[in-house]
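## retry 2 of 3
previous attempt timed out at serialization; input unchanged, resubmitting
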Amino acid sequence: MTRSEFFIAVDEEFGASQGRSLLRDLVMVELGNKSANEALAQGVAPREVWFALCSAMDVPSARWHGAGLPVAPGDTPR
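## retry succeeded, writing output
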């Protein structure tokens, strides 16, 4: 997961406003008692931060993988 995919996933899962607030304010034990923004700034992989955020916010595990990636035209639900 790239940084840009991470931010897309955050916006899609939590919305732009709430997502940015979570990245700034939510401190997670899984990240060494850091916020997502702090962890990213210190070089933690976006994928690791995404999984920690999903866990902390009780996002269903089915939505953890592939988040932030564009849906291929052939994969669009009918």
